[in-house]
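Suppose a colleague, Dr. K., hands you the sequence of a protein chain of 232 amino acids and asks what its three-dimensional shape might be. Before reaching for any lab equipment, you can write down a predicted structure in C-alpha cell form. Begin with the sequence itself:
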Amino acid sequence: MHYDFHIHSCLSPCAENEMTPNNICNMAKIKGLDVIAVTDHNSTRQLAACAQAAEQTGIALLSGMELQSQEEMHILGLFRRLEDALSMQPWIDAHMPVIPNRPEFFGEQLLLNASDEATGQEDRLLLVSLQAGLEEIAACIHAHHGAAVPAHIAERSYGLLGALGTVPVDLLYDALEIQDPAMIPAIRQQNPQIPEDTLWLCDSDAHRLVDIHEADYEISEAACRRLWERVP
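The predicted structure, expressed as C-alpha cells, is then:
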C-alpha cells in the first residue's frame, strides 16, 4: 500500500486553508495513495469529517494527531479506529495551556464538515507544548490503543535528534518517522541502540496539497499490523 501518515488539515494554523477534508482525500487519491493519516496539531476535532470524506473518496484513513511535548518534541499518534483517537481529546484538553489563537499571526484554525463547509474555528492556539513529557504522551497514546511515532526525528526543530541528539533507549515507540530515507544508515550508525527491526515511516508532513506524497513509499499490511504490537 502506498501511504502518507503525516498530513495536516486546515485546523492546523500552519496549514493552508485549501487543506480541507475532501481536498486532502481527493489529492491523495489522485497521487495514487492507498492509505493516509490526518494529523493535526494537538487536536482530533477534524477527524470525523476527514473519515467521512475518506469513505466517500474510497481511500483508507488512519485517525491521527501530532502532539507537542513539554520538551518541544513532536510525536504522532496513529489510530485504526476513529473512536480511539477521539477518546484522547479530553486528555489533550486537560494538558494543553489555554492561549487564545491570533489568526493574523499564527493562521486560522478552521473546523469543517464532510462537505468542506465551515462549522467554526478553534479559538485556542494549537501550536503549543502540552504539559506532559514525551514518555507520558507515548504511554497515553498506547493506553488509547494508538501507535506512538516520534515525528521527523532528524529535523532541527521538534525532532528527537535535533532536540536531544539521540533516540532515548527507554522511549516506547512503534516506528520512527524520517522525511529522507537516505539518512537512515547514518542515523543507525550514530544510534546503535535503535533495534534492527525498527519500522521507519517516510511521510510528507504536508501543510499544502502539493506537498502530499506521490506514490513513492509502500508499507505492507504486515508492517501496518506491527505498528500496534504494543497496543493493549
